[in-house]
Amino acid sequence: PLGFRPAPKALLLEIKRLRKHFAHGDAPAVERVSLDLGEGEMLALLGPSGCGKTTTLRMIGGFETPDEGTISLHGEDITSLPPEARGIGFVFQDYALFPHLSVLDNVKFGLRKLPRAKAVARAQEMLALVGLSGLDARKPHELSGGQQQRVALARTLAVAPPLVLMDEPFSNLDAAMRVETRQEVRKLLKAAGSAAILVTHDQEEAMAVADRIAVMESGRVVQIGTPDEIYRNPVSAFVASFLGRSNILTGTASGMQVQTEFGNLPLSRAANGAVSLSVRPEQIMLEPDPDGTASVVGREFRGHDQLFWVQEGERCMLVISGAGASIEVGSKVRLRICDCVVPLA
Ligand code: ATP
């Protein structure tokens, strides 16, 4: 049931049981996090504020020392190396551009080993790729936040490091720019063969750019997989609701079937006994029915589809229907679950 799996890539980064407990923290910020990353692979660390994403990233970068655990890059233990000795690229939220250097010189900074003409050409190529041609001579303070962010990206990608760490790199871009830039960055990384770890709390961004997503909750990685795997088979109510929207039901499972208040339904994987279940809003059909036991209590038109909130007894269910369905708030309906439901841990 776990779908397509790309061919395994050579292992680039291996993190084993990383732990960090800050002096004044109640609970560890990061607790036994283990992750593998293949060469050229793009991984998103996804989770709500405070779940330990940034601390994990900072330990990989060498800006924070783990209490326990190891980090290896290309098979070499780098756990206690300083950041500059790790050969890793960074793009952080505050970009850290050199304020006194021009845009071109900022991007050229990591290319000092190249002959000057080559470095300039490479820097200009990177600036063109991030859509900033013509701004070479400006200083960082003469740019918008979004433009500074793109200079920081260009500077990091110019040296094509084997691994790039990115902490919310698109946070200062407007919505349209963000969608475009993240696809460009993905293309740039893939073209350069660089792997990347992206910290984000935005599930749509994680699904759009990452090959795999590690979902974090309270310092732990609770699920890791491709966006499809995690969306189709979330392991818990937390993951189901964090990646997409979900209705959580209960039922009594027996093998590949489960008895619920919506009747006997097929399960996506075998389970037995009392279970919680995830049902995606698009897996529910809404049928107008004057004798129906459910009623529509809310509607949101989204252009390509519509969200409906439907009260069925004590429970409010979220349903997504096509844009064409003409169902008014207040009307009686019948709900039908038309797909496998997912048993949760
Ligand atoms: P956000 O999305 O808000 O940046 P995050 O998932 O990146 O959140 P972290 O920044 O890793 O989370 O923080 C994890 C926990 O560790 C939080 O409870 C935070 O308050 C705590 N923490 C982070 N840095 C420090 C520090 N230097 N000293 C003490 N506690 C810290």
Heteromolecules bound: adenosine-5'-triphosphate
Architecture per CATH nomenclature, i.e. the level-2 architecture of the largest domain? 3-Layer(aba) Sandwich
N-to-C terminal Cα separation, in Å? Answer: 17 Å
- CATH class descriptor name of the largest domain: Alpha Beta
Helical amount: 10-25%
Kindly report the oligomeric state of this protein: single chain
Helix-strand pattern: EEEHEEEHHHEHEHEEHHEEEEEEEE
Principal-axes geometry comes out as globular
Name of the CATH superfamily of the largest domain: P-loop containing nucleotide triphosphate hydrolases
Keywords: ATP-binding, Cell membrane, Ion transport, Iron, Iron transport, Membrane, Nucleotide-binding, Transport
GO molecular function, one term: ATP binding
Protein name: ABC transporter ATP-binding protein
Domain ABC transporter: 13-243
Can you describe what's shown?
One of its GO terms (molecular function) is ATP binding. It comes from Roseinatronobacter alkalisoli. Residues 13-243 form the ABC transporter domain. Keywords: ATP-binding, Cell membrane, Ion transport, Iron, Iron transport, Membrane, Nucleotide-binding, Transport. There is one protein chain. The protein is α+β, with helices and mostly antiparallel strands and 345 residues long. It folds into 2 domains: 11-88 and 161-239, P-loop containing nucleotide triphosphate hydrolases (Rossmann fold, 3-Layer(aba) Sandwich), CATH 3.40.50.300; 245-344, Nucleic acid-binding proteins (OB fold (Dihydrolipoamide Acetyltransferase, E2P), Beta Barrel). It is built from 8 helices and 18 strands. The strands form 4 sheets. A 6-stranded mixed sheet has the order 6-7-8-3-9-10, with helices on both faces. A 5-stranded antiparallel sheet has the order 13-17-14-15-16, with no helix packed on it. Strands 2-1-4-5 form a 4-stranded antiparallel sheet, with helices on one face. A hairpin with a 2-residue loop joins β4 and β5 (76-77). The radius of gyration is 24 Å and the shape is globular. The model has no long low-confidence stretch (mean pLDDT 92). Adenosine-5'-triphosphate is lined by residues 22, 24-25, 29, 47, 49-55, 201.
